[in-house]
Amino acid sequence: MAQIGTFTRDDNGAFAGTIKTLTLNVKATIKPCDRDNDKAPDYRVTANGVEFGAGWSRTARETGAEYLSLKLDDPSFTAPVYALYGSCSVKAYRVGSPDIF
Hints:
Elements: E1 2-9, E2 15-20, E3 25-32, E4 43-47, E5 50-59, E6 66-72, E7 81-86, E8 89-93
Antiparallel strand pairs: 1-2, 1-8, 2-3, 3-4, 4-5, 5-6, 6-7, 7-8
């Protein structure tokens, strides 16, 4: 699993950091958002004021560790990038990969 970003959390529950891929190198934020239904994301991912992803709070089945499941999409990507944020780094994975947390 490739690490594509690092973030730090502030006192308000938002995260600030950097996402780097072969085609993207941006300062980004992951901010909590209001949910209007059970499937709506818990977080929005933005860079330069443009939303390019969403995140859902999750808990690992085996360890109970909390993490964010992220879906990032940008016109430069051939397909959406799925990533997990735990501790301080964002790691990309392919759909169908086992839960690492």
